[in-house]
Design goal:
The protein is an alpha/beta fold. It is built from six helices and six strands, in the order βαβαβαβαβαβα.
Length: about 180
């Protein structure tokens, strides 16, 4: 079985930009390129798990999101790593696009996306991680049996002030390197 680092996208992998969809606006968070290359080289699968309520809200389409994800993976490849998969929840109960305006189990803190990715990529959740900047990221990871990492980028510092349910906290994603090296 494989080891993986499941990653929230906005505020964790890339700089938080409200409803990011344009490839030209994508920007990796500080230290993320070096960190993800290190993890990739160590044999971890890198898997994005992302709530994308902008689809339900009518701000962009799943095709738009696919184009952005393709761009992100192209940028990753240019830097010596790649994402094994991109999993997103397009739903939001207050959405305006009827087919996505529903309650679901895939929206974090639900675990359906993690479970699907784990099955698709033969991931051993007991030796894998979930990194994110929001309580919903950490709660999804905990429910799925992952070691959780709250990062201080994006909304992470605000989350740190109001939530203590994570396993580890680092100012940015690069802190996970020390955690991996301890194992």
């Amino acid at each position: 079985m494989n080891r993986a680092v499941f990653l929230d996208r906005d505020g964790t992998v890339n700089v938080e930009k409200n409803f990011l969809i344009r490839p030209e606006d994508f920007e990796f968070e500080q230290g993320v390129i070096r960190t993800l290359k290190y993890l990739f080289d160590k044999g971890f699968l890198l898997i994005i798990i992302s709530n994308q309520s902008g689809i339900a809200r009518g701000y962009f389409t799943e095709d738009d999101l696919k184009k952005l994800n393709d761009h992100i993976n192209s940028e990753a490849s240019r830097n010596g790593f790649r994402f094994a998969g991109f999993y997103h929840c397009p739903h939001h109960k207050d959405g305006v696009v009827d087919r996505y305006a529903v309650e679901c189990g895939c929206r974090k803190p639900g675990t359906e996306l993690i479970e699907k990715a784990a099955k698709d990529h033969n991931v051993d959740l007991s030796v894998s991680f979930m990194a994110g900047d929001k309580e919903s990221d950490i709660e999804a990871g905990k429910k799925a049996g992952l070691t959780t990492v709250l990062v201080g980028t994006g909304f992470g510092k605000k989350t740190l002030d109001s939530y203590g349910g994570y396993d580890h906290f680092f100012l940015n994603l690069s802190g996970i390197i020390n955690l991996i090296n301890r194992e």
